Amino acid sequence: MTTMTSIGAGRPRLGARKRPGATARDEILDAAAELFTTQGFTSTSTRAIADAVGIRQASLYHHFGTKDDILAALLVGTVDAPLAHARELRGLTEDAVLRLYTLAWFDAGQLAHSRWNLGALYFLPELANERFEPFRAQRTDLMAFYTEFSRAAVVAIGALDPADTATAALPFRLVESVINTRSDFGEPAGRTAVTIADAAIRALGWTGPPGEFEGPARALLNSTDR
Amino acid sequence: MTTMTSIGAGRPRLGARKRPGATARDEILDAAAELFTTQGFTSTSTRAIADAVGIRQASLYHHFGTKDDILAALLVGTVDAPLAHARELRGLTEDAVLRLYTLAWFDAGQLAHSRWNLGALYFLPELANERFEPFRAQRTDLMAFYTEFSRAAVVAIGALDPADTATAALPFRLVESVINTRSDFGEPAGRTAVTIADAAIRALGWTGPPGEFEGPARALLNSTDR
């Protein structure tokens, strides 16, 4: 079906939408995510992104000033949902192990099943540029939540040393390993989020049966969704 | 000190070596590793690599036909030592948990303390090209060793389901998470290899005290070094 589609600040466009997303901005982000993760960031031009959306390059610039701006928006999109959940979970008086499990389970799930494997872009040398400082700060915040929740879980479990920072860093790294798995095999089938969240608490000394926290984590997340 | 340095198939060079390595080939690999990991693969030209070594571009081509060839050599260098150890460990009748621990401990250690964080290059979209099939095959072999050793360890520990492939994949992912940590913070201090190897067996259901296998792993590795 061919329709007239408004693309926000740009001119109307004749043609079907090629990309998922409610707005032209979303379509640009989706096209850029595909090209950055499959062709590489350096190799992708804003012209190629505009072509993949089916808009003019000038229209793209109504939404994003530079290619770096597009990358920054995509990167922030990988951490804002887990950060929001972490902030809510911190305020709760739930069991420390369940709190960490819930964050890891949600975050691993979104990394596993997002449309593109955007975490692979974390390894771009370009991210050292000042332009990406806001993203880096948000990711550091998320990492700090993981460390805080992990330390509390280590205390609650009582098997390992809560002062061991390398151990407290393991759950965050296990969750981000979903990015590595996707880079090798594409979107994972099955129960990745549960496997990863189970391993995250096991790495902190927990020894219960697999999947024990999945139901409680789901319930907790539903209860905090606004 | 200024010395006359032979650069293999190229012409002799007047000047101090700028790079570690016994041969010009090693110097080229070191310079390329630095530039690929800090400036990006796409952004690095063979000219820039030659400049960083202090040789002519023509001399570089005596050693490597293309930039892809340099990348392929660097990538293979990240897996050949752990693969050699995995082959030796498979032949041993040691405890299955110790065998997995030893592989993870060695591999995490070399990823943590190699001169450049070459694992960050695993995420390059270029690696899908046929040129890198030999590297991908070797990494797949290494992954298969991890999976085999992990399954045997799960059976030996007796707490989790040996048929659960996602669980058996965790040790390999934990070891490669060293790459992610280095990408964020540089070369890790402290006892990364022990923390990772401990977490690898804990993820498989092991519940002993931290560091228990470090001494035996070191002894086992020394006994297999030829």
TrEMBL record, chains A, B:
Residues covered by region (Disordered): 1-21
Membrane spanning residue stretches: none
Keyword Hydrolase: no
InterPro entries the record matches: Homeodomain-like_sf, HTH-type_TetR-like_transc_reg, HTH_TetR
SUPFAM superfamilies hit by this protein: Homeodomain-like
One Pfam entry name: TetR_N
Keyword Transcription: yes
Domain HTH tetR-type, first and last residues per copy: 22-82
Keywords, sorted A to Z: DNA-binding, Transcription, Transcription regulation
GO molecular function: DNA-binding transcription factor activity; transcription cis-regulatory region binding
PROSITE patterns: HTH_TETR_2 (PS50977)
DNA-binding region(s) in UniProt: 45-64
Gene3D superfamilies (UniProt xref): Tetracycline Repressor, domain 2
Full protein name: TetR family transcriptional regulator
Provenance organism: Rhodococcoides trifolii
